[in-house]
Amino acid sequence: MSRARRLTVLGAATALAGSLVAVPAAAGTAAPARPATAAQDSATPATPEKTPVAVGSGGAVSSVDADASAAGIAVLKQGGNAVDAAVATAAALGVTEPYSAGIGGGGYFVSYDARSRTVRTLDGRETAPRSAGRDLFLENGAPIPFADAVTSGLSIGTPGTPATWDAALRKWGSRSLGQVLRPAQKLAQGGFTVDPTFRQQTADNEARFRDFPATAGLFLPGGKLPVVGSTMKNPDLARTYGELATKGVGALYDGALGRDIVRTVQKPPVRTGATRKVRPGKLTADDLRAYRALGQAPTRTRYRGLDVYGIAPSSSGGTSVAEALNILEKSDVSRLSEKQYLHRYLEASRIAFADRGRWVGDPAQEDVPTKGLTSQRFADSRACLIHDDKALTSPLAPGDPRHPKRCAAGDKAAPTTYEGENTTHLTVADKWGNVVAYTLTIEQTGGSGIVVPHRGFLLNNELTDFSFAPADPAVRDPNLPGPGKRPRSSISPTIVLRHGRPVVALGSPGGATIITTVLQTLVNHFDRGMPLVDAIAAPRASQRNAATTELEPGLWNSPVRRQLEAIGHAFKQNPEIGAATGVQRLPDGRWLAAAEKVRRGGGSAMVVHRS
Q1: What angle do CA 82, 92, 256 make, to 5 degrees?
Q2: Which of 65, 122, 254, 439 is buried deepest, with most CB atoms within 10 A?
Q3: Structure confidence at residue 611 (pLDDT)
Q4: Which family is it part of (predicted)?
């Protein structure tokens, strides 16, 4: 998650780059019989504040965290390209946003190559163990409690983030993994400043963190919550990054680091006397060795003369954003009143979520009609369900993208299943015109809650993104667990081109609200004429084929809520939806970086100024 953090002991971005020699490990505290991996210092360095928007000609980085953005800027300043800077930023987020992302998780990487004018993607989603069946989360024929599943070895999928970094750098980068890990390694060694959000996130997880000695040793230094303004260090993670830098990602997928992960999953290291039932997982060394980050074609749709590219399944982000945009294509959204615009936007979202629930899963094991879902023909057959004077009722039945029929009633409806809301997103551009939109995650805040002892990172709980059981046995669910299967995601990194050149790239955390955040931001910018930073900051609404739509306070307290309720919409308040970041290519060729103004403490937009 984003936090209002100032840059820490690393100082300016150029200082972050430093030399490319590994830093010697420092002593600390962690699990018993080993020095701790976290320490606190009372000094708070005086450093620059975050800013939500910046403009420069030499490249741009936008993330939720100033330290992470500075890591990416450091790589750009040293001549690295957007891919190099994206990996550097992501690695730094693994230090400063450890409850949202890290090498124990996965994500989706979308990249634009300026030379070939093409968009390419990597699916770095975690996978279930090859021994997993549809009954992964069932006991005695019934689903286990969701909270029990989260904090367990059962929820931990094979991490995809290290493989994603390695594949991106080998395919499209200009620097080695060791070079781009350097800023994050220094950050882990030197520490970052604890702010109120980090402390609160720790407090929210305190009870389960205390049940795992390695987790408590890292995030509860001295047995207490971290103090706001103190410096949190993670020398264990610095050593782990150093190992990846020197040995490559094989250290995780076929080495000692991987063996430590497997041991932790199969025998979760719970403290003596803990009453929590922590089920072991089934991940094996063979599962790690078999893992691959998958290169695949992006989704693509045309919208208002623009080419909108996203991530294809196993994520539902690209297909759902594309379908909703296609539904809105024939509406002149720029001329609509706020009520009319929001009504059509919400209905387009509702329909897209009805269809994704029926059709989107891991394409390696499910027949996913991606081309149909992103086609204008299918969208037109669904758009006619929308009426300006009455809201649709959820759960709405899905349509059939293989055989579109105008306003067809569709199959039986099933409700949208729960998806955790914690993730992080970064967006990068370089001086050559290359762009990256990258969203990475360990699932919910704090992931599984289990730190790999002596390694300095949390393991994911991504397998809880599977449906534990069909929401309705009468409706086919493509997102049930399976051997080696990737759970469906809502991650939606998006790059928009005009005539083959980048216009905007963006993404957001937020679980299933990622799709609606990206969609609403695109519509705000391209249809409603908002500058990108204002399109990101505007109050959000999220309809996900549910009986009620979530509204942020800016819309909840607005007269438009009552106007929409008058035509059948029902609402509940959500204090905060998403935390987007983006970059924009300005007409004069400069890059604009944009981030949140307020949400989750505000984001960090940084640019390189060429002399």
Answers
A1: 105
A2: 439
A3: 64
A4: Belongs to the gamma-glutamyltransferase family.
236 marked ligand binding residue: no
77 three-state secondary structure: helix
pLDDT at 243 over 90: yes
Both structure tokens of 124: 């770095």
Check the annotation: does 331 bind a ligand: no
Q: Encoding tokens for residue 387?
A: 């009426």
Burial category of 432 from C-beta neighbours within 10 Å (exposed 0-12, middle 13-18, buried 19 and up) = exposed
- DSSP class per residue in 326-347: HHHTTS-GGGS-HHHHHHHHHH
Q: CA dist 21 to 9, 29, 73, 179, 235, Å?
A: 19, 24, 19, 9, 16
What's the token pair of residue 319? 């297909």
> Within 10 Å of residue 499's Cβ, how many Cβ atoms?
9
Q: Which residues contact 56 (CB under 8 A, 6 or more apart)?
A: 590, 591, 593, 607, 608, 609, 610
Task: Tell me what percent of the residues of the chain surpass a pLDDT of 70.
Answer: 90
Answer whether 248's CB lies under 8 Å from 177's CB: yes
Res 267 pLDDT > 80? yes
* Residue range 479-499: mean pLDDT, rounded: 97
Query: Phi-psi region for residue 357, left (φ > 0), alpha (ψ -120 to 50) or beta?
Result: alpha
Mean pLDDT on 537-557: 97
What's the rounded mean pLDDT across residues 203-207?
96
Identify whether 197 is a catalytic site residue: no
* pLDDT the model gives residue 423: 86
Output the pLDDT for position 474: 82
Domain spans, the chain:
53-298+422-608
489 is in an annotated binding site: yes
| 170 Cβ contact list (under 8 Å, min separation 6) | none
Q: State the pLDDT confidence band at 261, using cuts at 50, 70 and 90.
A: very high
**Across 482-493, average pLDDT:** 97
**What is the reported pLDDT for 150?**
97
The end-to-end CA distance of the chain, in Å, is 34
User: What does the alpha-carbon distance between residue 214 and residue 225 come to, in Å, rounded to a whole number?
Assistant: 15
pLDDT band for 419, please (50, 70, 90 cuts).
Answer: low
Question: Are the beta carbons of 401 and 355 closer than 8 angstroms?
Answer: yes
**501-507 and 581-585 as β-strands: parallel, antiparallel, unpaired?**
antiparallel
Tokens 């230090």 identify what position? 95
Q: How confident is the model at residue 481 (pLDDT cuts 50, 70, 90)?
A: very high
**To 10 degrees, what angle do helices 161-172 and 82-96 make?**
160
Helix/strand number for the chain, H first, E second: 21, 22
Does residue 395 have a cis bond before it (omega within 30 degrees)?
Answer: yes
Share the mean pLDDT of the chain. Answer: 91
Residue 29 CB coordination number (10 Å): 18
Q: What is the 3-state secondary structure (H, E, C) of 415-458?
A: CCCCCCCCCEEEEEEECCCCEEEEEEECCCCCCCCCECCCCCCE
Q: Shortest CA distance to 75 belongs to which of 67, 87, 57?
A: 87
Q: Sign of the CA dihedral 414, 420, 421, 426?
A: negative
In this prediction, residue 409 carries a pLDDT of 65
Q: According to the annotation, is 465 in a ligand binding site?
A: yes
**CATH fold of the domain at 53-298+422-608:** Glutamine Phosphoribosylpyrophosphate, subunit 1, domain 1 (3.60.20)
* Catalytic option among 29, 158, 193, 423: 423
pTM here is 0.91
pLDDT (0 to 100) of residue 586: 97
